[in-house]
Amino acid sequence: MHVEQIAVFLENKSGRLAEITATLAYHGINIRALSVADTADFGILRLIVDDVESAKKVLKAAGFTIGITNVIAVEVADRSGGLAQVLMTIEKARLNVEYMYAFVNKSGENAVLIFRFDDMERAIVALQQDGFTILSGEQVCAL
Amino acid sequence: MTTLYWEEEIETLPRVGLESIQLTRLKHLVARVYDTVAPYRAKMDAASVKPTDIQTLADLQKLPFTVKDDLRDNYPFGLFTVPMDQVVRVHASSGTTGKPTVVGYTKKDIETWAGVMARAMTCAGATSRDMIHNAYGYGLFTGGLGAHYGAERLGATVIPVSGGNTKRQITIMQDFRSSVLMATPSYALNLADAMAELGVDPKTLALRVGIFGAEPWSENMREEVQRKLNIKAVDIYGLSEVMGPGVAMQCLETDRGMHIFEDHFLPEIIDPDTGEVLPPGEQGELVFTTLTKEAFPLIRYRTKDITRLIHEQCACGRTMIRMEKITGRTDDMLIIRGVNVFPSQVEHVLMGVEGVEPHYQIVVSREGNMDTMAVKVEVSEAIFSDEVKNLEKLTRKIQADIKDLLGVTCKVQLVEPRTIQRSEGKAQRVIDNRKI
């Protein structure tokens, strides 16, 4: 039920993000979702892509430091309150969110929320109990 | 294990015999230098010392020091003691901080050098059966040719691969079955990184031991090299002014210190500020007098290297005194807000943090009247995290450890891999942007 996310270390230098996206584009890798966490000194780019293995290989070859993390993708209806409902479940289960980001799928009916929790296994159970749809890596890429 | 010596008699000579040889050679040297080199004679006259004043080894202290500026002032050949037709080779320093310093060798000097290098390699367990991979740079730098002649004298097979072209070096190591690596420690790590990238397992190589020198390196870096290359890493010391590599060498019996080949190079430890000779075992600036060199002898040459001498006899049976690993240089020493900082101390801290690679750079700046020190550290996969808080925890830990050891507050800056310049030879560890 996990989705593999690639995290890339970014120095605060102009053009680094462009280099990553150009590298992925050159190898025909599609980015499904991304977020950037930034501090005054560095940033962490987090990516969900359609071909994790290739992305890993080409980014490493281009000299980037990368890490693979498991995250959870939750599908919700793209309407007011969609995220609030998920967060209520998380609050009820007393789970900590390390970070999250979201994207809307092509049809525009559903939104996908990407979560990293301190306790991933418990989060999956809690979300499934409350009837949320958790997507696999293939499902996220197929959206 | 049976310890191998290259010249057993002299290497294990009782101290009293060794000191008698040193005194005879010293008297002869001082007399010859006084007679043949005008700048030396002028300095001795100014200090009111005559060659006949040298009656014991302690009388050495009466003689004036020789410093790098003396070499520059007499550039290029002014301090040579023999006519140029007897000089068969010259080497020179890079001259990054002014004119290069030039050194010369007679035929006999080259033989002496090859002899001490063969002795040094034997200290590391090398024999005529070894395949010696010499990755020290060939050229004006003494490292390449010094090691080369020593390896040939030993009767080993020498691969004069020199520095650079790392991928080819690895292929040669695989195909030629290199068993002894000679390189700067930072280049050894460079090789290890390249092997990891190419998927070459060091265990599949024939490498057994590495002889590393030409730049200061910490004990933690030694462990790193040993682990990554799956070899024993030993320390060699030398400087071109005194001879080149082969002035002192660590043996396989101990990780503590290098044997100084005292029958050729007479060491002293002085207080770098006052010039006073320090009591045995104290840390200070290393000073050398060359006892046998013909073309370019040196009397009381200040090396600017900081170390201490170890007087206890080594388990290997050699009676020659040991010097500890160089902890820094008097001119590498940074003074940051009044605190003395050696790059090697920063390296020591970094190597103590799990996953941190020894690729770092210290950047010193001045903001207003305040000195600031930033330490750039490359982010390897081992320390990278997708969570900001983990990376911030890491930088705080390094900052705290540096503060604990050095007493200096610094800023740790994480940088992308391979953004700190890798040298093929010596690594540039410090950038001082202060305009003082």
Helix content of chain A: 25-40%
> How many strands of chain A?
7
Rg of chain B (CA only): 22 Å
> How many discrete structural domains of chain A?
2
Please give a quick description of this structure.
By secondary structure, chain A is of the alpha+beta class.
Describe it.
The complex is a heterodimer of chains A (143) and B (436). Chain A has 143 residues and is of the alpha+beta class. Chain A folds into two domains: 3-69, VC0802-like (2-Layer Sandwich); 70-142, VC0802-like (2-Layer Sandwich), CATH 3.30.2130.10. Chain A has five helices and seven strands, in the order E-H-E-E-H-E-H-E-E-H-E-H. The model of chain A has no long low-confidence stretch (mean pLDDT 91). Chain B has two domains: 1-331, Rossmann fold, CATH 3.40.50.12780; 334-432, ANL, C-terminal domain (GMP Synthetase, Chain A, domain 3, 2-Layer Sandwich), CATH 3.30.300. Chain B is 31% helix and 23% strand. Chain B is built from eleven helices and 21 strands. Chain B has helices at residues 8-11, 15-36, 38-46, 68-73, 107-123, 142-154, 166-176, 185-198, 219-229, 343-351, 388-406, and strands at residues 87-92, 102-106, 131-134, 157-159, 180-183, 209-212, 232-239, 244-249, 258-260, 265-270, 284-290, 301-307, 309-310, 322-323, 328-329, 334-336, 339-341, 360-367, 370-378, 411-415, 430-432. In chain B, helix 5 (107-123) packs across helix 6 and helix 10 (343-351) crosses helix 11. Chains A and B meet through strand 1, strand 3 and strand 4 of A and helix 11 and strand 20 of B.
